[in-house]
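no rush on this but wanted to send it before i forget. theres a chain ive been looking at and ive put its sequence and its fold in token form underneath. please have a look and point out which stretches look like helix strand or loop to you. thanks a lot i owe you, the record is right below:
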Amino acid sequence: MTLVGPELKKGDKAPSFQLLGNDLSAVTLENFKGKTKLISVVPSLDTPVCDLQTKRFNEEASRLPGNVAVLTVSADLPFAQARWCGAAHADKIKCLSDHRETSFGKAYGVLIRELRLLSRSIFVIGPDDRLKYVEYVKEITEHPKYDQALESLREKARA
């Protein structure tokens, strides 16, 4: 599969993006200014690994300080994300859709050209909007390194 966009690295400035919230409102990186952000990227919430990944980060989000935002980004339609979040009781994270413009996928190097889906990945962004942790999961059916991502997130949230 072909990924569109650059491969980002720890220390890079987090690229801007425009995503859709479940109410179709525009959401950008600026909406989370000054917060530490964990962005969990999944191909589709309606697949087993994506389901488990998103539920895991929702559970972890309940134990994180208020200066942390946990986001799940996929190319699913906002309505499908809202349905999934309701059914899964995922109320500690914010699900955002890259369906309309795929600006996130292109900016973060996770857009799968052949499928128009996003590749599984994790990004931790500090309050300074610099990448503190980056993981591009090589095999789409594998889980990310949850513990490493969460440790990086907790370090930045304490700083």
